[in-house]
Amino acid sequence: MDFFRHDVNLDWMGKTKYFVALSLTLLIIGTASWIHKGSLDYGIDFKGGTLVYVRFASTPPVDKWRQGLVQQGLGDSVIQQISDIASPNANEVVIYLPQQGQGNEALDAGKGAILNALHATLGSGEAGKQDFNGASPDMIADVLTRKDPLSAGPAGATRYQQLAKQLTDYRDRQARGVVSNLDNLRDAGAPPSVLSALRDSFYAGPFAVVNVEIVGPKVGADLRRQAVYVTLYALAGMLVYIALRFELVYGAAAVLAVFHDVLITLGLFSLLHFEISLTVIAALLTLVGYSMNDTIVIFDRIRENLRLMRREPFKEIVNRSINQTLSRTILTSGLTFLTVLVLFLMGGQVLRSFSFALVVGILVGTYSSFGIAAPLVVAWNHWKGQGAVPVSGTTAGSKTRPAETQGRLAPAGRR
Amino acid sequence: MDSNLRWKAVFIALVILLCIFGLVGLPTFPTSLAQLRDNFTRRIKLGLDLQGGTHLILQVQVNEAVSLQTDQTIDHLGTQLRDKNIRYEDLRKVGDTQILVHNLAPEGTAAFRDLLSSNFGEWDVAPAPGEQSGYLLTIKPSTVAAIQAQTMSQSEDTIRRRIDALGLTEPVVAPYGQGDNEIIVELPGEGDPNRAKSVIQAGGQLELRRVQDPNPYPSEAAALGAHGGILPPATELLPSKTVDASGQGSWYLVDRSPIITGRDLRNATAIPSTDNPGSYEVNFTLSTDAARRFGPFTEQNVGRPMAIVLDRKVESAPTIQSRIEDSGRITGRFGQQEANDLALVLRAGALPASIRYLEERTVGPSLGADSIRHGVQASIISLLVVLIFMVFYYRLSGVNAVVALLLNLVILLAALAYFGAVLTLPGIAGVILTIGMGVDSNVLIFERIREELRAGKAAASAVDMGFKRAFLTIIDTHVTTVVSAVFLFVFGTGPVRGFAVTLTIGLIANLFTAVYVSRVIFDWHLAKMPRQAALSI
Fold it and tell me: How many domains does chain A have?
């Protein structure tokens, strides 16, 4: 099977002004959104604060809860119900509490306050009993070993450990963390005697805290600084590598193209209200690598064609190179795009921002190779007034003699 | 068939076997399917975001150790100046790192300098600005650095001992970050992070000191008043730990120097209390050296109270009934867990400086289970999409690519198992990205082969040129992505590192499978094919 006509001869470099227009539009829209908001949507990794994710057995009483939080003095908290493509009936709520001052209060003061508010609003359950939805396997095993409902005696300890693990596995995997009624544990394989022992000591709390993230001010500031440095270092490293393998101008063109990709991605993030977290930075660095990949494939072909097509003007060589690698570019980008699209749709809420960065990044990264990097090299070449840029580097046996290079000035009228 | 080719095939088979063994063959050779699965889950280490657990970043306040050093120096300097009859008006501490000698008698200057250079070599001395005859001593930066390094390593060790004593599976305690005295602690598995946090943060500094006055005072002012406004030499006032309903505690006048410190303990255990049934107490035993000191001390002080001081607060002050050689009790209304934790902390040793938490993340196991499910589903679907496409598009050569890709994943997982690397949720995303980028290598090669075939080359020659021409490009593209990943590894923590590791290993394995293994399969196929037949690509 083959999708492509292999004799295409599209004039890519002729369309440069359309590419530039497209890029500028995207950049302007993105940066405008960014500037309008004042800054990027930083996630908790960068701005600090407290995030608590809570899962409920049934629809969460968000409004009631918001009032409860205000009563506790946490009026500046933000509660959001999570609805996710992958799990639409999640009954999950996330509460964000911004950084409470720079002082020496305990880091988890915010978490404590939120949990207090939760208990105050939703009741703290039955006296003397523990919340099953917040109990660890050890706690459950402890209670069971003491009560010994199966009359297993001292040897029963391991058995109760296994049973406790079974029960918590059921709760965490099938019931997604919140068991609404202790009777449901029958499905986990708990015999009736064990169930009644559990009912005596536990109650089924209405919620479970599934995730807590608390980032202090120092860590947030450190990370912001580091993120910028790392990206710059990585770009510098690649610039050096490409400059060595090809020529400095190729390196510069590739880096500028990647810069363009990152800016557009960040702009889209701002536009669509996605948060920038640490994993998003990881995705951005990956997209830097991927965009470089793509650009290198074209540059590689240009280098090869420079050797073969010695009489052609540079612009034509670039066009030809892009056309020749077109099938590979579309196939690979297409396949990689499909894989990250699957990740975006099915990878769960935790990876959503990360996979969005990759989805956008792959599209933009592929485009920038022929839309930005190649035109930049052609423009440089044009500006230098030569027909070709002599390529140094490790192409096997291709030491172009100076006389040949000079002899390849493009014939007049063909630029 | 070419014998060279045969050896290559054997080599590849060995690699496959090694990988499979690494994934399911350890620690015990499996004899059943259940054991196979068990081995596999044990071999792949899951990160905190997949198995649940707590991740803490804490900062050791090393300045406290430096400040303590300055305090001790002031004490020693004062004593030695007095011994040598060098007169001065005042010795004052300035900040954490400086001492001001106020109004030093001019005739003692030479002796002062001699004393400093012989006994206080870690301090730089300079005339105090704005003072007539005052000197400012500043601790040397190299000494500060040494104190900080020692405090950091001692803190790390103590924290590790305490966490190990909590009995958690495979905790991680390691230095973190770029030299800001930070330590990362990772506690996998379920459980209450609050207990671990308080055990880690507990000062744990135990001291036994003689009490000067038989009765405690209701306030600092009262204590001072009873002594005419100045405390007797070598004593200090310490508050009690327990406070009554109005927040008022008692104050004890105790010796400044403890007779016994936490370092003298040989062991500490929690046992049910004999005086207060239902609560617990901590029994400790002393080392032989300490016992040699303690025996005579208690004998000389029978009838007087002795303060048991924990983290600068008086837990209790029982009266010494008779000579005690080597044991003691800390009573207080401790619950069982409290007493256990206190005994644990005493056994592990005191922290040299206090701890501040900078970051805390707790992933519950249900979220971890969700993440695993989503990640695995997404991986399988993307793998299927890619595999089906390759077979449709490249026919038999597509099958070649499929084999290479599957082998790539097997090698990736086996490498994770062998290196003990941790698989995180972004790590699973890294696997998915490896699938996408890995297949790129195959596409590069196959498209090149197709090009050569179109240009009229014979099958064998086309394959040869395809691989040769594409090789450099493949190297270039892999290197640039690995460079990104290396930076991510150095800079990131936990989940991001997992991503960098899986991506790097995946791409390196891809070099092996897409170039070497694919080539071997092609060569093998070509050797079996009739010479003029068309290549299925």
Answer: 3
